[in-house]
Amino acid sequence: MKKYLFSLPAMLILILDSKTAIAGGQEGIELCLRTVIPSLFPFILITQYLCGNLTGQNLKILHPLEKLCRVPEGSGGLLITGFLGGYPVGASSVYSAWKSGQLTDSQGQRMLGFLNNAGPAFVFGIGAALFTNPLVTWTVWLSHILCAIFTAMLLPGEKQTSQIADVPREATMVQCLKHTILVLAQVCGWVIFFRTILAFLFSFLGSGTPLEMRAVIAGALELTNGSLLLQTIPQEWARYLMFTLFLNMGGLCVAMQTMSVVGELGIGMYWRGKLMQSLLGALFSVMLLPALFPLSHAFTRAAYLAAIPVLGLAVLLWGKYLKNSWHFEKIGV
Question: Which label site among 13, 80, 92, 275 has the fewest CB atoms less than 10 Å from its CB?
Answer without folding.
Answer: 13
